[in-house]
Design brief:
alpha/beta, six-stranded parallel β-sheet, 12 helices, 42% helix
Length: 346
Amino acid sequence: MEDAAVASPVVREPAMTDVARLAGVSHQTVSRVLNSHPNVREQTRLRVLAAVKELGYRPNRAARALVTGRSQLIGVIAQNSTLYGPSSLLAAFEIAAARQGFAVSVHRVPELGRSSITAAVERHRDERVAGIVVIAPTASADAALAGAPAEVPLVTVDGDPDRSAPMVSVDQEHGAYQATRHLLEAGHETVWHISGPPDWFDAAGRIRGWRRALDEAGAEVPPVSTGDWTAASGYLAGQMLARMPEVTAVFAANDHQALGALRAMTERGRSVPDEVSIVGFDDVPEAAYYSPPLTTVRQDFGAVATTTLDLLLGLVNGAETAGADAQPVITPELVRRESVRPPRRA
């Protein structure tokens, strides 16, 4: 006769009442602590958090949404891309949201067009997200967002600067202006530019900053070499520029294009920075280890993420935003390294 199977005991997940019992407080106090309510004494807050940690308690987000009327889930729509800027921003936003007790649901779309963005918005609405963030650096995405439902709190990152909708952006024009001014102040008569794709707002802003710096200095404005953010496109543009002895300074619209231009210059026997100075944009982690280490413009993606989250949560909580409050702008920083030097004089 076979032995009867022994049933495994059911392990119950700790509940909020268990936390309250261990901490010696009411379950309402536990709820206040978990929702960062300001009217809780510090000693009580620490006791509750210690009980949460000891029991391994995890809040039930669905139950909290029923009680508060607000989901603890934020939707993000982003293009399916491995580019450094959008990827870094998305990672920084997930970290910022987690610190505020929110989970992030990311819908990646193959292209930022009307149909794909509309479908992603609807999927997020089905998930009953508290709000939506759209990383929308291209003109096609901005046009698609014009028809987004008004009842869903939505914040755009790097959208059209001429739109009045809530948006957080980096001052791309100022960053490019800094980069170009740095090359001009080193003594170069003009600066050549390898741009990003023409339908990207970031690329357009960097062109504006580059051209403004040249115009203010009374310098010649050379024709733009258009790339696609990749090192390969920077290499192709660099091959052409390396053949031109009058080229002594290059501003590339991102660090990967700058890397391609560096290789092209080296292959053509144009020493960087002895004969040609190069500045990039983004400050990728490898930029300090290029040969030579690359002067570049650093975007603070952490600041962009926290500002975006604050703006979105304000909309979720019913705050009215207008003017500069609805469209905060983060200022980038020029990082000086060894890829810039005064030009050789005949």
